[in-house]
Amino acid sequence: MPLLRFDVIEGRSPEQLQVLLDTAHYAMVEAFTVPASDRYQIVSQHPAHELVIQDTGLGFTRTKDVVVLTITSKQRTPEQKQKLYALLAERLEQHCGIAPTDLMVSIVENGDADWSFGQGRAQFLTGEL
């Protein structure tokens, strides 16, 4: 059920994007214990001048490989979130060559009434999910 939105600088191949999406998905499955079939991902590619992602004074430099990941999800524990951040940083570096300094993650939380997966119903409220 988490909805993942990836904002990246244009230029990655379809294969590179697929590895990025797969890697992030499996980190999400592990950290948030969602089913493997629970996959909602959107990629938006931008010219480099359209992404201004600074370091908030942390002292590192972003590169053309920067990934901004916005996750919309039901509430998760701080431990689950920290596990996800660590898994994403580790695995995106391992599988995609993305430095941990090039990963920014923001989680936006909402509740059961905020999701409709189709048919004009809120499946978490109706008991369908």
Characterise the protein shown here.
The protein is an alpha/beta fold and 129 residues long. Helix content is 33%, strand content 23%. It has helices at residues 14-32, 78-96, 123-126; strands at residues 3-9, 40-46, 67-74, 103-110. Helix 2 (78-96) links the parallel strand 3 (67-74) and strand 4. Helix 1 (14-32) packs antiparallel against helix 2. The termini are close together.
What general form does the structure show? globular
- Please list the strands of the largest sheet in the order they lie side by side: 2-1-3-4
Mean pLDDT: 97
**Percent helix among the residues?**
25-40%
Number of helices, counting only DSSP H or I runs of 4 residues or more: 3
Ranges where pLDDT stays below 50 over 5 or more residues in a row are none
Summarize the helix and strand pattern as letters: EHEEHEH
Strand content: 15-25%
Please describe the biggest sheet, giving its number of strands, its sense, and whether it closes into a barrel: 4 strands, mixed
Query: What is the CA-based Rg, rounded?
Result: 15 Å
Which class of secondary structure composition applies to the elements?
alpha/beta
Total beta strand runs:
4
Amino-to-carboxy terminus distance: 10 Å
